[in-house]
Amino acid sequence: MRNLAYAIALAFALAACDKPQPNLAVPPPSAPVQAPVAAKPAEPPPAPQPSANEQFAARVKAALRNAKDLDAQGVDVKVADGVVTLYGTVPEKEERRKIAVFVSQMAGVRSVVNNLVIIRGS
Predict the structure, then answer these.
(1) What's the first-to-final CA gap in the chain, in angstroms?
(2) What distance in Å separates the CA atoms of residue 34 and residue 51, rounded to the nearest whole number?
């Protein structure tokens, strides 16, 4: 009888092999893991470019600085569409006039507004 019990147990075991196995939850293969992409360092914004008026004013100032016969060290310049405005101080009335004439003869100058103030010893 013992052999019969083994035979029955073996038959059940073999019969169980035909049955489909329960579905084990196996995760589907995932996409390959990519290394994080290093962020590109942000480029600084470009430096603001001076306007045409500012560039022209810089040229007028440089010309006044480099003029040998003018005392324009206390003179500042603003430009708007070819109109040059002179600010600052000069030591004499004649120097005020000479600076205005010099600037008015520069290429691109439409007119000169002379706001220079005469201060002796400036």
Answers:
(1) 133
(2) 48
pTM listed for this prediction: 0.60
90 three-state secondary structure: strand
In tens digits, what is the pLDDT along the chain, a chain of 122 residues?
667 666 676 666 666 665 566 666 666 666 666 767 777 788 888 888 889 999 999 999 999 999 999 988 899 999 999 999 999 999 999 999 999 999 999 999 999 999 999 998 65
Whether the CB-CB separation of 116 and 76 falls below 8 Å is answered with: no
Q: Where are the alpha helices (DSSP H) in 19-92?
A: 52-66
CB neighbour list of residue 122: distance below 8 Å, 6 or more residues apart: 74, 89, 90, 91
Scan for tokens 């052999």, then name that residue. 3
In sequence order, the 6+-apart residues with CB closer than 8 A to the CB of 53 are 78, 79, 80, 81
Q: Which residue has the tokens 């600076």?
A: 99
**What residues pair up with 40 in beta bridges, in sequence order?**
none
> Which region holds residue 82: left if phi is over 0, alpha if psi is between -120 and 50, else beta?
left
Confirm if 86 and 75 have CB atoms less than 8 A apart.
yes
